[in-house]
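Sample pair:
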Amino acid sequence: MVGSPVSWGSPRTAVGNTIVSFVVIAVIVAASVAVVAMRGPFNSPDSVTSTASSALVSPATFLVRVVDQSGVAPMAGATVVAAPIPSPNDVALTPGGPSINECVHQVPNGAYVYGNGTVVAGTTTFTISPCPLKVYTSNSTGWVSINNATGVWYFIKAGNVNEWNYVVIGVMPGTTVNMALPLPSGNATVPSSEESCVTGNGGNITSTCTKVPGLPVFEPPTTIVWPCGLGLPNGSAGTAQGFYGGYYIAYSYAALPNGTKAALLNDCNVGGL
């Protein structure tokens, strides 16, 4: 039996084999700034460009605006959770909505789950690792800013409306990417140009040129993560993160000669193997 997700807090008795989903409950103030970056192995004329002097080491910034889908009005006080993840496929659909695998655990029938992550099952005690998701709240104009995002991929979710209200996006160091997340659909979009539509910082974030709906964010349906190393196999076709044919490709990927699509863990050269 699959039970409801359990958050950090008072212990709750598990019924059957229960999926336990932990969510960090410390709320970052609305003025917090969102930063997300993306890594791309291939250069393209319309990909997001770096504004940092050291693009390979500088963190990126994601400015996320939560809006009401029906009227595209900004939604103040909306909950947004985000964290780096090891793979674009590291998403778990739980009874409490989408999460990431690091925050979802299965515990034995009859176990007690305590707020510090301790699980007691009969005479056995073990600890569940903390959930890396951070919680943000949109400000009065709907904005959330996630600062100093690092890693290769980022999971971002707005609200708990349905299983589609999240996006996985690549981390491109040294860039700032504007996004809109409309609820309830969760169909994320980005502006169709690289122009920054946000001025100020911290609690003074304002919006004068946000482009909504913008271009839809497309998450390539990859099956494996390619570490590159010596490069991609000869005959591979790579696509960098960026704007292509009416879509924003969320992260770099490659179509390998055997037909498999691979998300790219590092900058890759085609034809190295």
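The chain has one domain: 12-264.
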